[in-house]
Amino acid sequence: MKIRLMQLDDYEKIYELWMSCVGMGLNNLDDSKEGIEKFLQRNPDTCFVAEVEESIVGVIMTGSDGRRGYIYHTAVNPQYRKQGIAKSLVDTAMTALQRIGINKVALVVFDRNEIGNGFWESLGFTVRDDLIYRDKALTEIVRIDT
Ligand SMILES: CC(C)(COP(=O)(O)OP(=O)(O)OC[C@H]1O[C@@H](n2cnc3c(N)ncnc32)[C@H](O)[C@@H]1OP(=O)(O)O)[C@@H](O)C(=O)NCCC(=O)NCCS
């Protein structure tokens, strides 16, 4: 297994991977090729894929606003799970974020996603029960939840 920086050319394969995973929260704008291109342009050194024999089996997108690091869309092909691939992707991305001066990272995960929550818990990502997550769409967005 090899981890390398994610490229825009990987988009179609990665999108297929996301759609094959239960628990992803995608949408028609941020997860379009144009949306991902925008994210990669802003965060060129902190998004990674895992490859086995030239084929993409895992992905993590992380980025920052210069203060907090954010993690998005971590996924591993079901056939390659429980081999430490997602953990390696997280470790690689955390090192990359630290390198650009980020001290703390955050992510959101569906409450119903037991595997996802078990995974983040095992890596020491604690639940903030003193906070309420709020957001507001600035553009009409269509959710694509898997
Ligand atoms: C969550 C996910 C990325 C984990 O990928 P993975 O490569 O299987 O994870 P790892 O092998 O690196 O697991 C690391 C640790 O996480 C925990 N973990 C992983 N999968 C787990 C599961 N199914 N049940 C319980 N704990 C789990 C374990 O503690 C594991 O360490 P261990 O194998 O030494 O016990 C993968 O299951 C996935 O793609 N799920 C669908 C998408 C998703 O939910 N993404 C996260 C939400 S944003």
UniProtKB/TrEMBL annotation:
<protein>
    <submittedName>
        <fullName>GNAT family N-acetyltransferase</fullName>
        <ecNumber>2.3.1.-</ecNumber>
    </submittedName>
</protein>
<dbReference type="InterPro" id="IPR017255">
    <property type="entry name" value="AcTrfase_GNAT_prd"/>
</dbReference>
<keyword id="KW-0012">Acyltransferase</keyword>
<dbReference type="InterPro" id="IPR016181">
    <property type="entry name" value="Acyl_CoA_acyltransferase"/>
</dbReference>
<feature type="domain" description="N-acetyltransferase">
    <location>
        <begin position="1"/>
        <end position="145"/>
    </location>
</feature>
<keyword id="KW-0808">Transferase</keyword>
<dbReference type="InterPro" id="IPR044542">
    <property type="entry name" value="NAA30-like"/>
</dbReference>
<dbReference type="GO" id="GO:0016746">
    <property type="term" value="F:acyltransferase activity"/>
</dbReference>
<dbReference type="InterPro" id="IPR000182">
    <property type="entry name" value="GNAT_dom"/>
</dbReference>
<comment type="similarity">
    <text>Belongs to the acetyltransferase family. MAK3 subfamily.</text>
</comment>
<dbReference type="Pfam" id="PF00583">
    <property type="entry name" value="Acetyltransf_1"/>
</dbReference>
